Amino acid sequence: MSYRKSFPAALLCSLSSMVWAGGADIRIGDRPDPATGNEHYTGNRAPLLPSRFIALPPGAIEPRGWLHQQLRLQADGFHGHLKEISQYLRKENNAWLDPQGRGSHGWEELPYWLKGYGNLAYILGDQAMIAEAKSWIEGVMGSQQPDGWFGPDHSRAGAASRLEGRDDLWPNMIMLFCLQDYYGFTGDARVPVMLTRYFRYLHEQIPPDRLLNGYWPVMRGGDLLHGIYWLYNRTGDAWLLDLAKKVHADTARWDQDIIDWHNVNFAQGFREPATYYLQSQSPKDLDATYRLFRKMRQLYGQVPGGMFGADERARPGYTGPRQGTETCGLVEQMLSDEILLQISGDPFWADHGETVAFNTFAAALTPDLKALRYLTAPNQALSDAANKQPNVETAGTLFLMTAHQHRCCQHNWGHGWPYFAGLYAPSKVTGSVGNGQTVSIVEATHYPFDEAVALSVGTDRPVRFPLYLRIPGWCDRARITLNGQPLAAEAPAGKYAVIERTWSGGDQLTLTFPMDLRVKIWKENKGLASVERGPLTYSLQIGEKYVRHGGTDQWPDWEIHPATPWNYGLEFEAANPAGSFKVVRGDWPASDRPFTQAGVPIKLQARARKLPGWTLDKLGMVGQVQDSPIRSDEPSETVTLIPMGAARLRISAFPVIGSGPEARTWEGTR
Q1: Which of 242, 250, 256 shows the shortest CA–CA distance to 285?
Q2: Cα dihedral sign for 98, 104, 107, 111?
Q3: What whole-number distance in Å separates Cα of residue 140 and Cα of residue 387?
Q4: Distance in angstroms (rounded) separating the CA atoms of residues 402 and 638
Q5: d(Cα 410, Cα 101) in Å, to the nearest integer?
Q6: Considering only CA atoms, which of 176, 194, 196, 199 is closest in space to residue 246?
Q7: Which residue blocks in 39-189 are alpha helix, DSSP H?
């Protein structure tokens, strides 16, 4: 389940009929056919393409289990208390609260933070947090001028921008998400009125070729496009589609190629053509988004964890697993996955969102969510405060875990878990079906660590509706039982199973996703190997020594140093790679914190040999890897692998140990 977008709404609310195979009650399809609308929730309005999936409002899904714990940690951690830490969230003289938009700190930091903070408050039902979020929303709404502009004005837009006042639309693009989510939670009718006035200002008073000034607005115009369609779906004002055409024309041409190699710009910008596809209805626009995704992964993403080496910008020659991605880039990629799932219905985007969330994003913060680092990489055996440039593209303390630095990520990371969508996780979802009857579905699971997902239906009286179930792309033998009886249909990988029947309160549905071990060889990146089980990739378990490096007593900064060896190559049988690993199951953590070394319920045992010549380089980064297979005269050892998301220090892309004439000698760290 999820909180905000896409998949849960489709679970409860039929969008379509499909072309199915199989029996009358269970059918299999690639994605929903959006021919039928949904009268209970707002989807796309003609002439936009109909919605494949429709969002449920914030609060419709109640998190449980590990996911609730993760959100509670976020609220109790530095994100929930960032107003006590960040100068950009001080209310005194803050341009976001001034009726004329005058003052300081009028750029991206406040809306970045509020985007996650507001949703976190709504999801948890935390009244103090809800009140805090509302105080900022009221200030923003109170800043609207007679001509329709809202937000900061008549002052410098921020240190990262040379644009003045109204010339920079980027901060307002972020605030659109905050206002939309507030409306979804409250139904406050002032929001669409306010946004209508604002978009009319953009449409009528700014020349089309001056709509998006500056680097950030041009690269991220797709976020503005998303907001325009949100309003159009609620008002039907045709001129909004004319404005959308202007925005698309003035946005960087992501429909043609990768326009910018900045990791966050790509994570946001690559989805713009698919967003505009809703209006253009040209398959070329949708295809462009897929093409950009594949190109970036082909060039810089031949590593586990779902992301790509672009710290901050992707550079030729820097493609190995020690290159990382900004935490901003991680959460923006997850949001793009969620939006693309909603647009296309393609379960691939849900699979990818899981990959990033579980394997990379979970490890970008300390286990208590009280500090984060700017860059997280698949191979990162030391997370310290030392400058890594030129091995990474930007200078600074980019590996340090801190609540006080990394300005953009410090504020922006918070929407990662609250916007988590299209995925299986413990929760309860409540929505309307049929003629408006309320139905709830409780999802009990330890997924992604466990194979079973149990769904319990709650309804006062029998009601017929189709229940959509995503079969992950890695699962070849999914099984589905209804009230203890197996359903006689195959559920192949990367498809949707839909069960259409008259449901009664107490109906029980169980999904089983067998999680076979897989060894993936990254042929285009030195022949490295990674080990996967279900949606999780596994890393070497490295002892982690936390060393205080400044900060405050309440919010300390941390370096993380390796306390055990990390320089191993994996041994496995080429004919049966998965058979070389042993799954070790433990108890579910009483803390409900499986993304910690102490709490992981599933580990793997593997055979490995040390590579003495593989060391940290002079900057403290993992030495460059070499082509596998590698010869090692060190004794074979049993090592433990844990999920990547629980490994803040990590070796996830391993050299492969070999013998014979094709095996190479390790040349030493360069």
Answers
A1: 256
A2: negative
A3: 38
A4: 34
A5: 24
A6: 199
A7: 65-76, 109-124, 127-142, 170-186
Q: Which two tokens stand for residue 290?
A: 């897929």
Q: What is the DSSP letter of 151?
A: S
Cα 108 to Cα 88, 113, 123, 175, distances in angstroms: 9, 9, 23, 9
Angle (deg, nearest 10), helices 347-359 and 327-344: 160
- Tens of pLDDT along 239-264? 999 999 999 999 999 999 999 999 99
The secondary structure of 498-523 as a DSSP string is EEEEEE-TT-EEEEE----EEEEEET
Distance in angstroms between the alpha carbons of the first and the last residue of the chain: 46
What residues are paired with 510 via a beta bridge? 454, 481
Q: How many Å apart are CA 396 and CA 374, to the nearest integer?
A: 10
What pLDDT was estimated at residue 19?
28
In angstroms and rounded to an integer, the radius of gyration of the C-alpha atoms of the chain is 25
Q: pLDDT for 502-560, tens place per residue? A: 999 999 999 999 999 999 999 999 999 999 999 999 999 999 999 999 999 999 999 99
Which pLDDT value is given to residue 208?
87
| Contact between 616 and 600 (Cβ < 8 Å) | no
| Higher-scoring residue by pLDDT: 69, 153 | 69
Helices (H), 258-396: 263-269, 272-280, 283-300, 327-344, 347-359
pLDDT of residue 421: 63
Instruction: Assign 434 a pLDDT band (cuts: 50, 70, 90).
Output: confident
> CA 340 → CA 6, 11, 268, 351, 588, distances in Å?
9, 17, 11, 12, 33
Asked if residue 474 has pLDDT above 50, the reply is yes
63-415 topology per CATH? Glycosyltransferase (1.50.10)
Pairing state between β 630-631 and 664-665: parallel
- Average pLDDT for residues 408-429, to the nearest whole number? 92
- Per-domain residue ranges of the chain: 63-415, 517-665
Please, which pLDDT band fits residue 20 given cuts at 50, 70 and 90?
very low
